[in-house]
Design goal:
It is a single chain. The protein is mainly alpha-helical. The protein has one domain. Helix content is 92%, strand content 0%. It contains 3 helices and no strands. Helix 1 runs antiparallel to helix 2 and helix 2 packs across helix 3.
């Protein structure tokens, strides 16, 4: 009789622990998913901002220089320089900070 009660208690304990682990996993994934979606939305808005600022700067420089090609060529040169800087320093500027941020989000997802 006591063994049956003990067996039942152990089964309930295991079931409760499994349910708790499932809820913790769901909580972590939902926090990570929410962070990812917000980062994507902020990124899209940032890209649109940079796009329209670049177009505006291209037209403004073209107006100042009196030649449409010159203004946009200067803006394109700026982005080429930025591209080269990112390619050369991608490990230090991109990979390591992004990796650290992802690890931090996974470990501390409950605190978000």
């Amino acid at each position: 009789m006591k063994i049956d009660g003990l067996t039942q208690s152990i089964k309930q304990y295991i079931g409760t622990n499994i349910e708790l682990i499932q809820l913790e996993v769901i909580d972590r994934f939902s926090a990570i998913g929410a962070s990812l979606i917000s980062i994507i939305l902020i990124g899209i808005v940032g890209i649109l901002f940079v796009l329209f600022i670049s177009i505006g700067a291209g037209f403004y420089l073209s107006y100042l220089l009196g030649n449409y090609y010159s203004g946009f060529a200067i803006i394109a040169g700026f982005y080429l320089l930025l591209f080269l800087i990112l390619i050369i320093g991608k490990k230090k500027l991109l990979k390591k900070p992004l990796r650290d941020k992802i690890i931090q989000k996974i470990i501390y997802a409950n605190e978000v």
